[in-house]
Please model this.
Amino acid sequence: MTSIYNVKFSNGLEIPTLGLGTYKEEKEDVLVDAVKAAIKCGYRHFDCAHIYFNEQHIGKAIRDTIAESNGALKREDFFITSKCWNTYHSREKVHLCLDQILERLGLEYLDLYLMHWPMGFKEDAGDYPLGENGKMIPSDVHYLDTYKAMEECVRNGKTKSIGVSNFNIKQLEDVLSKSEIKPVCNQFEVNPLFQNSELIEFCQKNNIVVVAYAPLGAPDRAWLKTEDPVPLQHPIVLNLAKKYQKTPAQIILRWLLQRNVVVIPKSVNPSRIEENSKLFDFTLSSEDVAEFKNFKEQFRFYKFEVADNHQFYPFN
Model:
């Protein structure tokens, strides 16, 4: 079993540096088996979201494993993140969203509650309220008001920490200057083809832990085009994999860990899950880390263009 180290949040609590991403998989047996396989390999950090529609399966796998462990595992051994969806940005809906998440997971609290995007969508009109223009219908709720409601969720004990996801520097500056409870984390896309260095630097300077989604370039995304670049097949990665006798995925994940970035690779394949956990028995040399600066192409895999007309769209 892999021993995964933690990093400290600004509030003194800790997050494991490796977690399992759970986006997209909705089949109960597949996901339950994947989560149980991950726990067996040493994973304790699971990244969930209200909009993934699968939290009940993740909760079941965790609760079953705790029950079967004869007291060896407890709820506090796990780190569970979930996210407030864009149609739940008003104050009462922020609380409702968290209550629904906890009910699905079958847990009493989250370790980390994130605002999934800075953009609020029209409420009570489905999860993806589309206008006639084919774009998301915005709500008039400001992300600072949403964040204020999330602070109440810490005070009432339903989450230990709060943070954001997909926020740009200007939006983070707003939250940092107006909040009483500082965001401990910003989760956003980072991989060799989208290194996001300026945002990482800003977060780390301001004591905000960076969690990287799509660290391997989301190879199973539904909108994949044949001409899109593939980080796992890049010559720099392949050469380093050969040199260290590791897989391309292990090389990329190790590079991110050495940038002090938390990684949440997504997989439901038990052997891949185990392979992705074997990151702590080798170190890339500083020269090899520097090799990643030679990735000239920068390509954002998650653009969420159907919301790019929103006043708080973060990628303009």
Q: What stands out?
A: The mean pLDDT is 96. DSSP finds ten helices and ten strands in the chain.
